[in-house]
């Protein structure tokens, strides 16, 4: 009988903002650390490479062109030489990895989670379906073709980024694919003016809700906003008083909505490590099963368009004739 017990971790850590090489190097170091701790799955924060572009919420749009161009230059291609270093690190450490990156594809960037297995193979990726508010200055929209759950040595793994978790049907699309472990990747916005009292509560509420409604483990990985990251922004765009350093809320949530690893907050970087048992999902399924006996298919059904959305459709591909 195959094992149902695995060791997983969330990387509560900050990137080196806009420094592609250093952020990749830090990611590889955390993967190696995870491997030494016996971790079999490691989840990173949203766009850990090359960091979340916090300036988009803090400065006038027309002032951002310089940093946005730098951000484009610091984004990665999939596959590509930078991500190949992460693949090698995952293989050397025998760790499955979900890494948040800013992905460059032609002239467009995407907010992407890359799924890499313990052999260093890219299993696939998820592109954030809907960039939030000012994020649309930076990233394009993903489509349903990457709304996927991947078979791994540690179970069926899916993921979403940040407020994409408010798209209830996107969460359900992962649930009906049998998701057992959910990679919830976030930046830190809890020090941003107006969100001091709400952001961490939102992250927690959505994480616990998905764990219970999806009958899955949820690994929440979030980065603190460091003074170094603020200095990068302010050196080009000037002082701001909207978002100081701080924040960060990471945790590992059980399918019942309770803590496997309680929330870790603040500037201290660490791997949150936990041993989980997928058999716990089977127990919960006796009560509720979001893709089975609790779904009420004759009343509520989900339609998913998982066709990749290119900019050109060729007649030969559609079977149409003149």
Describe the structure.
The structure is a single chain. The chain is α/β, with parallel strands linked by helices and 322 residues long. The chain has a single domain, classed as Nitrilase/N-carbamoyl-D-aminoacid amidohydrolase (4-Layer Sandwich), CATH 3.60.110.10. Helix content is 26%, strand content 25%. It has eight helices and twelve strands. It has a six-stranded mixed beta sheet with strand order 5-4-3-2-1-12. The protein has a six-stranded mixed beta sheet with strand order 6-7-8-9-10-11, with helices on one face. Strand 8, helix 5 and strand 9 form a beta-alpha-beta unit. Helix 1 runs parallel beside helix 3. The protein is globular and about 55 Å long. It starts with a strand and ends with a helix. The relative contact order is 0.16. The mean pLDDT is 95.
Sum up the structure in keywords:
322 residues, Nitrilase/N-carbamoyl-D-aminoacid amidohydrolase, 6-stranded mixed β-sheet, 12 strands, 26% helix, globular
């Amino acid at each position: 009988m195959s094992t149902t017990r695995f060791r997983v971790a969330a990387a509560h850590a900050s990137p080196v903002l806009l420094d592609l090489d250093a952020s990749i190097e830090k990611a590889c170091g955390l993967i190696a650390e995870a491997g030494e701790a016996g971790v079999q799955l490691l989840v990173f924060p949203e766009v850990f490479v090359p960091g979340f572009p916090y300036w988009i919420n803090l400065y006038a749009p027309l002032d951002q062109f310089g940093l946005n161009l730098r951000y484009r230059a610091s984004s990665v291609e999939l596959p590509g030489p930078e991500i190949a270093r992460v693949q090698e690190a995952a293989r050397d450490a025998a760790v499955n990895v979900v890494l948040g990156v800013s992905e460059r594809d032609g002239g467009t960037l995407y907010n992407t989670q890359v799924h890499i297995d313990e052999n260093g193979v890219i299993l696939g990726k998820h592109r954030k379906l809907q960039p939030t508010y000012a994020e649309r200055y930076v990233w394009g929209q993903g489509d349903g073709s990457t709304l996927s759950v991947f078979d791994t040595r540690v179970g069926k793994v899916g993921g979403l980024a940040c407020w994409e978790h408010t798209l209830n049907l996107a969460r359900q699309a992962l649930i009906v694919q049998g998701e057992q472990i959910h990679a919830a990747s976030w930046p830190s916005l809890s020090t941003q003016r107006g969100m001091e009292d709400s952001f961490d509560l939102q992250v927690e509420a959505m994480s616990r809700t998905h764990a219970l409604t999806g009958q899955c483990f949820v690994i929440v990985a979030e980065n603190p906003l460091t003074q170094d990251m603020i200095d990068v922004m302010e050196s080009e765009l000037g002082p701001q008083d909207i978002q100081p350093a701080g924040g960060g809320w990471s945790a590992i949530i059980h399918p019942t909505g309770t803590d496997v690893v309680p929330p870790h907050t603040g500037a201290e970087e660490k791997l949150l490590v936990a041993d989980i048992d997928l058999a716990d999902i089977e127990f919960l399924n006796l009560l509720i099963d979001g893709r089975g006996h609790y779904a009420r298919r004759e009343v509520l059904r989900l339609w998913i368009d998982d066709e990749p959305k290119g900019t050109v459709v060729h007649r030969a591909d559609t079977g149409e004739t003149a």
